[in-house]
Specification:
Elements: H1 2-12, H2 15-30, H3 36-50, E1 55-59, H4 71-97, H5 104-116, E2 123-127
Antiparallel strand pairs: 1-2
Helix pairs in contact: 2-3, 4-5
């Protein structure tokens, strides 16, 4: 079922646009030395934005990875500079998708993406069992 949801999302639900925008943001961030950690996070989220069904984003510490020092401060900086606007955009897209019964799963996917916009660093996409 996740495969069907991901294909429909990518083609009709905005997945291709979300993927393109997150990839574009990652490329722009990668052009600066300061933006490299944010670029890596943006590329990870781009993959999740393209195919969110059957997966969820979890903190890397829950997977046994060590937390990089300064991740919390970097996430606050991210929210101030870009995260708030991205979250608002995904929330608006989610509300618009939820206006129709068929679009509700796509709206929920946008809400998952809006939530990750507040702390993208240190997140990993894992399969939901």
């Amino acid at each position: 079922m996740a495969l069907v949801g991901n294909v429909l999302w990518f083609v009709f639900g905005g997945g291709i646009f979300a993927w393109c925008l997150w990839m574009f943001g990652g490329v722009v961030l990668a052009m600066t030395v300061v933006g490299l950690p944010f670029a890596i996070a943006a590329f990870r989220i781009a993959g999740f934005a393209a195919f969110p069904f059957g997966r969820q984003l979890v903190d890397a510490q829950e997977l046994g990875e060590s937390r990089v020092m300064g991740t919390g401060i970097a996430n606050v900086l991210w929210v101030v500079l870009a995260g708030l606007w991205l979250a608002i955009a995904h929330a608006i897209a989610g509300v618009l998708c939820c206006l129709t019964v068929i679009g509700i799963p796509f709206g929920l996917a946008h809400f998952k993406l809006a939530r990750v916009c507040f702390a993208p660093l240190g997140k990993r996409a894992v399969a939901v069992s």
